[in-house]
Amino acid sequence: MARAMFEYTKTVLKKVSFSSELFCKELEKAMIRLLPYEVNELKIWLQEYTSNKPELSACMIRVTN
Description:
This protein has five helices and no strands.
């Protein structure tokens, strides 16, 4: 079940990536709902996913704290 939540989170983040505001809100929700090791995996995924999307890079601050 936990793995499904991680995959669902990635899917949602991809779908809302057109809006940095929505992306940040969904990212905040994910940080609360995911397990600690999944948060670490999400950080790695986010670094790769946002590498060529500078408008989403501002949301990475929420992840590093």
